[in-house]
Design goal:
The complex is a heterodimer.
Chain A: E1 4-7, E2 10-13, E3 19-25, E4 31-37, E5 43-50, E6 53-57, E7 64-70, E8 73-78, E9 87-94, E10 104-105, E11 109-113
Parallel strand pairs in A: 2-11
Antiparallel strand pairs in A: 1-3, 3-8, 4-5, 4-9, 5-6, 7-8, 9-10, 9-11
Chain B: E1 9-13, E2 18-23, E3 31-38, E4 45-50, E5 55-56, E6 61-64, E7 70-75, E8 84-92, E9 108-113
Parallel strand pairs in B: 1-9
Antiparallel strand pairs in B: 2-7, 3-4, 3-8, 5-6, 6-7, 8-9
Classes of the chains: A mainly beta, B mainly beta.
Chain lengths: 114, 114
């Protein structure tokens, strides 16, 4: 069983479109994240949710809107896509606190905006 | 977040031990030292973490300096599959924003030579 799964794995779309990336974890974790990895391979956190509540919202355009319908899901909706949004987006989950707070990452969604 | 410094790249011969260093001179008393790695075209993967004592698991060993200002990830026998970017991350899992995110640096790109 895949611990953290994202769909789709690849997404090619035109500028101006609206798209969503879905993420699900079956680990029973309280916290879920979205990370963006740009062309320079730098991984940067975008959002962090704990028990369906937004905890961290880094400097991300408000065209990006995360939605957490339940603890196991954190979807990312992107409006009015721009060329600069092209990147690999990773979903992750972890328990919040304690020595065992390791994070599990999905395989990533490669978004290409043309 | 306390910062870490790692070499940009390292090389190792297959089946030889690899020592990946990390400096974290501003580490606080509640920061855990986490190591993740990212294989090509995959999401980051947890490797190991520790607080003060050296740690071993099936993937690697973590040696932590007595003053905790540096640590070393040890791969006992490098294989081709270990070629990846290795990230050393400090995480305060008991308070503040550190509980809710992993802050990735540039990491060390490890190449394994057959």
């Amino acid at each position: 069983d895949t611990a953290v799964s994202q769909t789709p794995k690849y997404l090619v779309t035109q500028m101006g479109n609206d798209k969503s990336i879905k993420c699900e974890q079956n680990l029973g974790h309280d916290t879920m994240y979205w990370y963006k990895q740009d062309s320079k391979k730098f991984l940067k956190i975008m959002f962090s949710y704990n028990n369906k509540e937004l905890i961290i919202n880094e400097t991300v355009p408000n065209r990006f809107s995360p939605k957490s319908p339940d603890k196991a899901h954190l979807n990312l909706h992107i409006n009015s896509l721009e060329l600069g949004d092209s990147a690999v987006y990773f979903c992750a989950s972890s328990q919040v606190q304690g020595a065992r707070a390791e994070a599990f990452f999905g395989q990533g969604t490669r978004l290409t905006v043309v | 977040d306390a910062k870490t410094t790692q070499p940009n790249s390292m090389e190792s011969n297959e089946e030889e031990p690899v020592h990946l260093p990390c400096n974290h001179s501003t580490i606080s008393g509640t920061d855990y030292i986490h190591w993740y790695r990212q294989l090509p075209s995959q999401g980051p993967e947890y490797v190991i973490h520790g607080l003060t004592s050296n740690v071993n698991n099936r993937m690697a060993s973590l040696a932590i300096a007595e003053d905790r200002k540096s640590s070393t990830l040890i791969l006992h026998r490098a294989t081709l599959r270990d070629a990846a970017v290795y990230y050393c991350i400090l995480r305060d899992t008991y308070s503040g924003a550190g509980s809710y995110q992993l802050t990735f640096g540039k990491g060390t790109k490890l190449s394994v030579i057959p």
